Amino acid sequence: MVLDNFQATVRKIRPDDSGLLYQLTVSVFWPHRDRDLDLFISLGHGYLAIDEIGRPMGSAMYFPMGDDFSMFGMMITAPRLQTQGAGRWLLSQIMADCAGSDLRLNATRAAYWLYETEGFVPVATIWQHQGIARDIHLPTPVAGIETRVMCAADTPAILALDGPAFGADRSRILTVLLGLSEGRVAVRDGEIVGYALIRHFGRGKVIGPVIAEDERIAMQLIAPLIQANVGTFLRLDVPLRNELFASFLAASGMGIYDTVTEMRIGPQRRATEGAQLFGLSAHSLG
Prior knowledge:
By secondary structure, this protein is an alpha+beta fold. It has two domains: 2-100, Aminopeptidase (3-Layer(aba) Sandwich), CATH 3.40.630; 128-279, Aminopeptidase (3-Layer(aba) Sandwich). 30% of the residues lie in helices and 36% in strands. The chain has eight helices and 15 strands. Strands 3, 4, 5, 6, 7, 8, 9, 10, 11, 12, 13, 14 and 15 form a 13-stranded mixed beta sheet that branches. A hairpin with a 4-residue loop joins strand 5 and strand 6.
């Protein structure tokens, strides 16, 4: 493949490729650190385009979740090559690898048209909230709901709750995230009905995933995480528009910074009632 007068070699992403992926993320002003990229490499598969002198030109990854679903992510093309077809070629590679699976991704404005022409359908806006955390009063507890610090014994219940809410079995990935995160669970009558995680990511920490039945339970879950990280750069990517939840996040220092568009091929699998997704683990992981 020839791009910008350079002969590009495309190969599978390898465990030691975080440095090359980091060069790509810097070129498009993404905040990922080496630890974030090492995590993605360990959880997914993908392709890297490299020119004749070893410079990265583009990447694309997919993250299988169960036997019939994958998230797409780390779709990056070096800015000078974004009109030369590299992104489409890399996308076609991972789509071929995932043939027969339902697909989901979060599209930047620059890439939206590409995904739409390949058959992806828009689902929802993802609202990227971020900023330096400020102290915030704990919200009034929801009747019948108690929240507490997550422990290892909660893992089976968290995995069982997450699958229907997310719309796919991401237990393999979520188990890894649980090992990297602190978190809280919401409990009703002894049963876990929600959870929220927080871990190091990018410029500071990311809150997510967050699973809850409504915005008040989500607020009750994450407020202690915010309080414990006052002065820290926090981020939370929200896959729904809820004015109360958005106002709560803004009051805590996390205003709206940007948006992307959730898109899919296949049926809408993410829950829209009951326990549902209030915060993503990452754009690439959902």
